[in-house]
């Protein structure tokens, strides 16, 4: 499955730690393409463990993670305006 | 076509103005679902004019906008962890 993941972490007192952990988890599964955006191909079991790990970190009432799941990237076209691909990718 | 749009605007001196304009343009075409994430169904001509308007605002060397285009939302599943749908949607 092709996955696009976007997160919005509330930067309150513990927010920085949650953000760093969330970023590091996502980097282990997906490619970092923009500030809080990741994409990549995952098996169902990888997707399940990614969701489980994220669920252990984020705060239900403060943080938001959205996953778009497509059966294949064949049905998804990607277009980038402005800066292409996030060269830095060492966001933190 | 089903569109997912994500932007990352560099918040330097004119960044706030670019961010506000980008947000307002996106809101006219798509639904705001998270901090810098929009989604919705657009015709090809609507998509072209959205891209044109955004191209007029963002700075090629500083800002990044990614558009994922899927022929239909039937091939896309969306899952939200943490805070559901951005109720506020008056981000600015």
UniProtKB/TrEMBL annotation, chains A, B:
SUPFAM superfamilies: TTP0101/SSO1404-like. Its cofactor is Mg(2+). Pfam families: CRISPR_Cas2 (PF09827). GO terms for biological process: defense response to virus; maintenance of CRISPR repeat elements. GO terms for molecular function: hydrolase activity; metal ion binding; RNA endonuclease activity. Keywords: Antiviral defense, Endonuclease, Hydrolase, Magnesium, Metal-binding, Nuclease. Mg(2+) binds at residue 8. Its EC number is 3.1.-.-. Homodimer, forms a heterotetramer with a Cas1 homodimer. CRISPR (clustered regularly interspaced short palindromic repeat), is an adaptive immune system that provides protection against mobile genetic elements (viruses, transposable elements and conjugative plasmids). CRISPR clusters contain sequences complementary to antecedent mobile elements and target invading nucleic acids. CRISPR clusters are transcribed and processed into CRISPR RNA (crRNA). Functions as a ssRNA-specific endoribonuclease. Involved in the integration of spacer DNA into the CRISPR cassette. HAMAP family: Cas2 (MF_01471). Belongs to the CRISPR-associated endoribonuclease Cas2 protein family. PANTHER family: CRISPR-ASSOCIATED ENDORIBONUCLEASE CAS2 (PTHR34405:SF1). This is CRISPR-associated endoribonuclease Cas2. It comes from Peptacetobacter hominis. The lineage of its organism: Bacteria, Bacillati, Bacillota, Clostridia, Peptostreptococcales. The gene is cas2.
